[in-house]
Amino acid sequence: MRSMKKVFMICMVLVLFVCTACSAKTSTKDTDRSKIAEAFLQTVFDVSEDDVSGFLELSSEEDMQAWMSDKYGAYMTADGLNSGMQNRILSMGIELLREGKSYEDPQITIDKKENAGEEEWYDYKVTVSAGDEEIIYSGSMLLVQEEGKWKIDQIARQK
What we know:
50% of the residues lie in helices and 28% in strands. By secondary structure, the chain is an alpha+beta fold.
């Protein structure tokens, strides 16, 4: 009887250990995806006057796509790049500088929105302080796996 209790206790400890390990692994995956989304948004707002000049010198749609792919392709699928260009999300930092608004590092918040199988939706909020003005950008993005890496496949901005 005493050995049965020991076996039972050992089994319970093992079950608890496995459950904890699985839970930690899942939250680490979500954190990794959040960090990808955050790094992407940081890149959108990490622009210089040279970036603005280069952007303004683009003369064709092909040049624009090549420039955007070079700058954001590590974070986005081809569909994500198209979505970001259509919604003018990829040029948010550039537009601020073009308008003469210098700003500090943005405050970025990423929250998991909805789990749909292999697809992961995240809400984002970017708060930029430009002088006395506070500008907020928010929306949602879909991350998917492409060639073993999580990338943004769709991105939308709330108006």
